[in-house]
Amino acid sequence: MLTAVGLGPGDAELLTLKAVRLLSEADTVFVPGGIASELVKPYAREIVVLEFPMTRDEEVITACMERNAEKIVPVARAGKAVFGLIGDPNYYSTFSRLAGMVRERYPGLEVETVPGISSITAVASHAQIPVNGAFLVTDGPADPATKILMKVTHPKEKAELLKSEGYNDFTVVERMYMDGECVHRGTLPEKTNYFSIMIARKV
């Protein structure tokens, strides 16, 4: 099994309890750099630092992902491989591209992610700026390919409105991590609980 674990924004005290447990249980912990290496050091039995060059050259990136996958997969097949990275593994992360390659080339291998405290939530706390209204997070384009909507109690109606903006893929997670949790994909219900989050994508 390969598990990507979010290590938070860089403060060792902001690792989650689940992150600490998974790091301690791992046969090998793989990290993309020095900061992550320092954060996992107190818990990991074996640490392997992987190279991820900062470049936009697709050939270089693909070759890098192939090399790193070849190092990780044997450990993941034999036991527990953990990939620890700063922030959250699903938001603008090094892991997303790597995971796609591993899933494509090794379809029988289980790959999962465990959330960490992302810079998106950490910066509001650090800057002491509360966020109570809608906000946009982007790494460049002003027209986002993904929207995350909170408290969506009428998901079918909301999806119809978003289709006019070009969104065509919808997932609703209702009561996440709570009793009665339900993930709705494709066919959405008319009504959901107050604790419901929609992810709308242009795919």
UniProtKB/TrEMBL annotation:
<dbReference type="Pfam" id="PF00590">
    <property type="entry name" value="TP_methylase"/>
</dbReference>
<keyword id="KW-0169">Cobalamin biosynthesis</keyword>
<keyword id="KW-0808">Transferase</keyword>
<dbReference type="InterPro" id="IPR014777">
    <property type="entry name" value="4pyrrole_Mease_sub1"/>
</dbReference>
<comment type="pathway">
    <text>Cofactor biosynthesis; adenosylcobalamin biosynthesis.</text>
</comment>
<dbReference type="InterPro" id="IPR003043">
    <property type="entry name" value="Uropor_MeTrfase_CS"/>
</dbReference>
<dbReference type="GO" id="GO:0032259">
    <property type="term" value="P:methylation"/>
</dbReference>
<keyword id="KW-0949">S-adenosyl-L-methionine</keyword>
<dbReference type="InterPro" id="IPR014776">
    <property type="entry name" value="4pyrrole_Mease_sub2"/>
</dbReference>
<keyword id="KW-0489">Methyltransferase</keyword>
<dbReference type="InterPro" id="IPR035996">
    <property type="entry name" value="4pyrrol_Methylase_sf"/>
</dbReference>
<protein>
    <submittedName>
        <fullName>Cobalt-factor II C(20)-methyltransferase</fullName>
        <ecNumber>2.1.1.151</ecNumber>
    </submittedName>
</protein>
<dbReference type="GO" id="GO:0043781">
    <property type="term" value="F:cobalt-factor II C20-methyltransferase activity"/>
</dbReference>
<dbReference type="InterPro" id="IPR012382">
    <property type="entry name" value="CobI/CbiL"/>
</dbReference>
<dbReference type="InterPro" id="IPR000878">
    <property type="entry name" value="4pyrrol_Mease"/>
</dbReference>
<comment type="similarity">
    <text>Belongs to the precorrin methyltransferase family.</text>
</comment>
<feature type="domain" description="Tetrapyrrole methylase">
    <location>
        <begin position="1"/>
        <end position="190"/>
    </location>
</feature>
